[in-house]
Request: fold
Amino acid sequence: MTGLLDNFVLRAALAGVGVAIVAGPLGCFVVWRRMAYFGDTIAHAALLGVALALALETAVIPAVLAVSAVVALAVARGTGRRYAADSLLGVLAHGGLAVGLVVLSFLPGGRGDLSAWLFGDILAVNTSDLALIWGAAGLAGLVLWLGWSRLLNSTINEELAWAEGGNPERDRLLLTLALALLVAAALKVVGALLITAMLILPAAAARPLAKTPEAMVLAAALIGAASALGGLRLAWVADTPAGPSMVVVALGLFLVSNLLRRA
Amino acid sequence: MNAPLIETRGLGHSDGPRHILYDIEMAIRPGEIVTIVGPNGAGKTTLLRALIGAMQPSRGTVWRKPGLRIGYTPQKLTIDRTMPLTVDRFIALGGSGDPDARAAALATVGIANLGAAQVTDLSGGELQRAALARALLRQPDLLALDEPTQGLDQLGEAAFYRLIERVRRDTGAAICMVSHDLHVVMSASDRVICLNGHVCCEGAPVQVTEMPEYRALFGLGTQGALALYRHEHDHGHDHDHDHEHHHGEPQP
Reply:
């Protein structure tokens, strides 16, 4: 097994597919709940988490989760007081990204890694990265799997969910947690700037093909995995950057699915 | 008297400086049909949402019987266009695993042929019926319906109230409705709560229509105009909307 994982292309493929098959389903929730900008904010602010983890020499994933939690809390508390949600998200997204970049620049050798954090460096994924990616993505997937009906009900209509004994507030928290986990997992694969693309594009591409939420989630996972593998292939053949290539393939699939089923 | 399903104590709610509800003391008991009436902005929807737990009021408490099953239809059900969902699935998500029961419920609310349709293709009225089917299937102790007859013509309204009566008779469920459509509602209710920020008056429909507070709020016949609203209460409270106060004046 270790012998197999010595192959960097195989490691890259496993990392890409691992992120994509969870990003697709989670992306459906992001699309349904109109959380695209929120996802973007978590992803951008995650870079601050990375910078802090490197500065304090601690593990990256807990730091990313902590920053995500602070961002989610700040959005929940601040919305509607003085600023609309999107203004606040913009402040946090770009503020977090900028502070993260500044902190990274102070670290020895930090500047060199910059493009890897922004755009991912999937071909440099090592075996322990792979374990972290599958662990974090798997945990995010588990949250969706176990909470499926409740999360779906809270997403369809919060008032109905409350009346029927659900707790949409807790469900929103669970989805934020899953989002933070996935962002942490995907940083090395597509980078902070393109994570939202792997959430939104496969889900949006799956929409015209689906008549049930389950079908949309399944299609999004498959489209995501196809984008990851297709992007890697494109990067290999045309010598293009791997992260953006995956997003380009996802964009192509989005266009195809919309041409197949005109609304 | 039966123990209540829901009871409020000193319930109040403010949205910033706006006092929407204050000093609400009310209860809903098993098997009764209660209608909350009041002018626009009286806080009817807010009260209903507080009763069912969809909203946390800023003051007071709402006590719900432990294990209380609620079926709810919001005033306007919106489902995002990106959500692929058949009507049948939407109803099943309310907790009914029996396809035959779901089909029967759709027939009951008059959309038997729409089970396989996508919820995003439904009209507002059809979606509200689907929500009612979902609420009925939960075999609720309490049906909470927000403006259930809006978008129905008079025939549809009459059929709707017959349905409500039948549900109460067959299942023993209590029903709490919000409406501003007075006269039809009155005949179908056991008890009417007249709301304008606070409970102005309540009682059986015949009694309520005789009460000065009710007449003040809704007028008599076609004279129904809020401009006629006079306060006959001697309890003081702050209103942020301006109308004349005539405390202690003889009744008009």
Observations:
- Chain A touches chain B through 25 residues (CB under 8 Å).
- The CA atoms of residues 41 and 90 of chain A lie 7 Å apart.
- The two ends of chain A are 47 Å apart (CA to CA).
